[in-house]
């Protein structure tokens, strides 16, 4: 009788990681330059504005006057922090309503003095905590959407990492919305989407594909105006080169916007957001 020969277990190769998830991990890379890094590298004479004049000064949002190539401008960005202590203090970059109200207060000051507005976004979403909701998170975001849509100065938003939900959109109703090559821009995080759609956050990679939030997808949908290339491997591999590339594109778009009359600027902004991401089906 033949001896029983143990069978070798052959493990199937792991499925390839979807490109959308590769981009997600690059957008979230811990060494990727954060919005404040761009402000410090590209602008001079930054003078921060504090407080929303209603409740508090949100550590997860910064706003201030600065100079861009010698021109007075306003810069706004959410802040994440590098250390654990900083991240906790800044709620991992997720602003409270007072953060959005501070940003709006600063934008109104910029409008009064005719200063262009630059925003930098790396935000998984607004803070969903109970306190934030009690103080009117949804209203604060909605107010920013309304007021940014009719702000009477040129506006440029740049998504540098993760642009998530209304928390990102509240800083991105702009004449030009730029997006770095390995950034993502989405209505919800892939983990949140998977939890809702399949009751399983582990299906985040599947959700990443379905959400179509990579730069390639988003510009095809018309949700951003330009995808800015990154150094090979991502901005964290060569921050100096990344800053130079972003600087050139910001200068180009500001010059283009300032060549338009104010009426033409507002008309074009209105038309863009009225027609964004349209699609049609046939019966």
- Tally of contiguous helical segments: 12
The succession of helices and strands, N to C, reads: HHEEEHHEHHEHEEHHHEHH
Percent range for β-strand residues: 15-25%
Based on secondary structure, the structural category is alpha/beta
Q: Averaging pLDDT over every residue, what do you get?
A: 92
Low-confidence stretches: none
How would you characterize the overall build of this protein?
There is one protein chain. By secondary structure, the protein is α/β, with parallel strands linked by helices. The chain is built from twelve helices and eight strands. The protein has helices at residues 19-27, 35-42, 84-89, 97-112, 130-134, 137-149, 165-169, 190-197, 204-211, 215-220, 239-258, 262-274, and strands at residues 44-48, 61-68, 71-78, 117-123, 155-164, 176-180, 184-186, 226-228. Strands 1, 2, 3, 4, 5, 6, 7 and 8 form an eight-stranded mixed sheet that branches. Helix 1 (19-27) packs across helix 9 (204-211), helix 4 runs parallel beside helix 6 and helix 8 crosses helix 9. The model has no long low-confidence stretch (mean pLDDT 92).
């Amino acid at each position: 009788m033949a001896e029983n020969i143990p069978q070798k277990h052959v493990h199937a190769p792991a499925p390839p990681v979807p490109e959308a998830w590769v981009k997600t991990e690059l957008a979230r890379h811990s060494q990727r330059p954060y919005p404040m890094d761009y402000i410090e590298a590209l602008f001079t004479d930054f003078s921060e504005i504090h407080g929303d004049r209603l409740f508090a000064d949100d550590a997860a949002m910064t706003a201030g006057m600065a100079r861009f190539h010698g021109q007075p401008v306003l810069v706004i960005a959410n802040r994440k922090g590098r250390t654990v202590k900083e991240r906790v203090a800044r709620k991992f970059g997720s602003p409270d309503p007072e953060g959005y109200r501070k940003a709006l207060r600063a934008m109104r000051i910029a409008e009064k003095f005719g200063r262009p507005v630059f925003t930098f976004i790396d935000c998984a979403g607004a803070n969903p905590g109970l306190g934030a909701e009690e103080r009117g998170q949804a209203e604060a975001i909605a107010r920013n959407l309304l007021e940014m849509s009719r702000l009477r100065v040129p506006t440029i938003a740049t998504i540098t990492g993760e642009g998530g939900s209304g928390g990102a959109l509240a800083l991105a109703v702009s004449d030009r919305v730029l997006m770095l090559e390995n950034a993502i821009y989405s209505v919800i995080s892939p983990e949140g989407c998977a939890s809702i759609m399949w009751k399983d956050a582990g299906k985040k990679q599947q959700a990443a594909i379905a959400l179509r939030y990579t730069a390639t997808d988003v510009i095809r949908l018309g949700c951003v105006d330009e995808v800015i290339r990154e150094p090979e491997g991502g901005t964290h591999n060569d921050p100096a080169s990344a800053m130079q590339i972003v600087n050139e594109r910001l200068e180009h778009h500001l010059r283009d916007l300032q060549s338009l009359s104010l009426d033409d600027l507002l008309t074009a902004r209105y038309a863009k957001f009225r027609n964004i991401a349209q699609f049609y089906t046939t019966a």
